[in-house]
Amino acid sequence: MLLKARIAITVILCLGLFSVNSALALSDKETDEILNSCEAVFKAMKDSNYRKLWSLITPESKETIVKDTYKELDKAGVITSRDNITSDFEECGSMCRSYWKGFLKSFKPDAALMDSKWAMGDVSGKEAEIIITYKKSQQPARVKMVKIDGLWKMGLTETFWTRKSLFFW
Q1: pLDDT band per the 50, 70, 90 thresholds, residue 143
Q2: Cβ(159)–Cβ(58) under 8 Å?
Q3: What residues have CB less than 8 Å from 120, skipping those under 6 apart?
Q4: What residue ranges do the domains of the chain occupy?
């Protein structure tokens, strides 16, 4: 009886360790895809390639940006629809360019690209986290990445909007 209990406990522990390790273990290719996708967002910002930037962020981020833009335009008395704003961002029209230029006055992509250390964080299924620590920061940014239709997208607003007042780049 004692031997069966020990065997059962050993099997349970081994299965537990195996499942944790397999959840954390990524292939080099998958790790590269996640990191490259994140880097591409910062490069698109730096290059003012807003159409590409828009294609590299999550639908949730897009929705938040459209909603925030709509609210600001409404406060300013500009009459438009969310659909018009969405189309403008997809085509990189005047609202899109104004939004990203304003955003990039306080958010410096070079801080992430040139002056930070990157490390893989937690990964589970279709979600991953990249830990980016700026050289002057005490707290790292934990960038949320989401796999959508086989491609890794950055959760820009999911990552940074909760820290709006804490931008360190």
Answers
A1: very high
A2: no
A3: 26, 31, 34, 35, 128, 129, 130, 131
A4: 26-166
Residue 68 has, within 13 A of its CA and on its CB side, a CA count of: 14
SS3 at position 153: strand
| pTM exceeds 0.90, yes or no | no
- Choosing among 2.60.40, 3.30.300, 3.10.450, 3.40.720, the CATH entry for 26-166 is 3.10.450
pLDDT of 82-120, one tens digit each? Answer: 999 999 999 999 999 999 999 999 899 999 999 999 999
**What Rg value do the Cα atoms of the chain yield, rounded?**
21
Helix, strand, coil % in the chain, rounded to nearest 5? 60, 20, 20
